[in-house]
Amino acid sequence: MTTHRPPGRGTRRYDVVIVGAGHNGLVAAAYLARAGRSVLVLERLDRTGGAAVSTRPFAGVDARLSRYSYLVSLLPTKIVRDLGLDFRRRPRTVSSYTPVERAGRSTGLLVGGDERRTRASFARLTGGEREYAAWQRFYAMTGRVARRVFPTLTEPLPTRAELRRRVDDEPAWRALFEEPIGIAVEACFADDLVRGIVLTDALIGTFADAHDPSLKQNRCFLYHVIGGGTGAWDVPVGGMGALTDALAAAARTAGAVLATGHEAVRIDTDGRTAEVTWRTADGEGTAAARHVLVGASPRALAELTGAAPPPPAEGAQLKVNMLLTRLPALRDPAVDPQEAFAGTFHVAEGYRQLATAHAQAAAGVAPAAPPAELYCHSLTDPTILGPDLAARGHHTLTLFGLHTPARLFTRAGNHDTVKEQLLRATLAQLDAHLAEPLADCLATDADGRPCIEAKTPLDLERDLRLPGGNIFHRELAWPHTQDGTGRWGVETPHPNVLLCGAGAVRGGGVSGVPGHNAARAVLERPAS
Q1: pTM metric for this prediction
Q2: Measured distance CA(91)–CA(105) in Å, rounded
Q3: What are the residues facing 375 on neighbouring strands?
Q4: Pick from 235, 221, 258, 321: which is nearest to 50 by CA?
Q5: What kind of fold does domain 12-55+74-88+237-312+472-523 have according to CATH?
Q6: How many angstroms from the chain centroid is the CA of residue 279?
């Protein structure tokens, strides 16, 4: 996107300057501009959207993939409604499918579609009703917590005691907030595969063991099961870029200035007024403001203000984008690929497999059987494919690999070697459950190359400046007050500088919550 009404070379004054035009920065800009504040958004890249974008990564191929972030759960309907966004999402017809080899035969667990089919799939896998009943009880519990916690995300931060009273379920509170999630998983479920499927929500983007005493896996799990008050993960119609395009349009319409190609390099503040220095290809400039909101990471905030850097962050995922000429056939004859890939397709994510992969990666060794999950967005939203590709049966496929921390790629000259090794090993785990190699289904681009790209944590750090490739900017925080958190969870040591990105309390994921909360914090203060 091009710059809209660039700020010019001289110092101009605004009520608010926002650093970063990711989805959270755009949410904040739209709210503040609609409230009558003058807003400048500075974005380093030549486009808005940050990690929530749709791109055509393959030369000459008309397929728009959600390149970095894939699904929507934590975005409150309130934000879509408040900002009048032209944005839709669709539920997936199937929640998940997990293939497995048991007793010399290919089988698997299909969750979703309808209760009868899910119950039958559990019975086929486990030989009885116990695991299905446990599944129902466990997710009834997380559903109760979701309905009580999710509405608090756009309210002032509750204290821990207030949130506990709101949850009003001591066994659930203990399982999710006080004990390692592995305790609850092992107490509720007996089957290794079922345990693993449940645990994966605690590990998406978080490098941890089920029994990590820090409970960072619990915080990750909580955010994955509370979205929308249901925990459902939906497909954004038109790709993730449809959301950020709608947000950019809302911000511009309200009067915000979106300056792409403008990199903020310094923030000077006395706590009452601030000045932001920015750099373009043509030189430097400054903008003065009463408030500055930073949608970049806490590490970037420290660099901009000259503060001591926060503890290092580390991402732990392998992201792979693909385009297929057809969905591959499965070894499991009981499940149609159109159903298996319609939800989350789990690979090598049994409970013991996850523990083994974590132990290997923690020792600095690439997992021999990397766990991963895949999503076929085009089954739910075919509009992301050009008409010709859709007519010929092409499909997108995105893969999120777990337990691949940045440390595996940081040895000198080792990044590309480890990346290729992990990609091959991950696809081999998938191929073990297919009746044909995935490579036979890959489309080719205009230059005859297979339509597949992989992104490591270091790639994400380079492309998007995510610290250590951490998709949450830092470790996720509990959605209640902690030491140093203020009323909205966006406050910093500088009274007029707020954090509005994923590193804020209640940040992480495509939610817009930090942007909403930072705007609320500004609007609670006098305009002049």
Answers
A1: 0.96
A2: 31
A3: 344, 398
A4: 258
A5: FAD/NAD(P)-binding domain (3.50.50)
A6: 29
- The region, left, alpha or beta by phi > 0 then psi within -120 to 50, assigned to residue 33 is alpha
Average pLDDT score over residue span 358-378: 97
Domain ranges of the chain: 12-55+74-88+237-312+472-523, 129-232, 314-469
Question: What is the per-residue pLDDT for 1?
Answer: 36
Q: How far apart are CA 185 and CA 212, in angstroms?
A: 13
Q: How many other CB atoms sit within 10 Å of the CB of residue 210?
A: 24
379 within 8 A of 338, measured Cβ to Cβ: yes
Instruction: Enter the tokens of residue 281.
Output: 């290809």
126: tokens are: 């486990």
| Matching residue, tokens 């397709």 | 345
Distance CA(96)–CA(500), nearest Å, equals 32
In tens, the pLDDT along 177-224 reads 999 999 999 999 999 999 999 999 999 999 999 999 999 999 999 999
Place of tokens 């403001």: 289
Q: Are strands 94-102 and 344-347 parallel, antiparallel or unpaired?
A: parallel
Cα–Cα dist 190/170, whole Å: 23
The tens digit of pLDDT for each residue in 159-180 reads 999 999 999 999 999 999 999 9
- Structural contact between residues 369 and 357, judged by C-beta atoms closer than 8 angstroms: yes
Q: Which amino acid is at 86?
A: D
Q: Does residue 123 surpass a pLDDT of 90?
A: yes
331 CB-side CA count, 13 A: 18
Report the alpha-carbon distance of residue 381 to residue 385 in Å, rounded.
Answer: 9
Residue indicated by tokens 């059987």: 369
Q: Answer whether 41's CB lies under 8 Å from 27's CB.
A: no
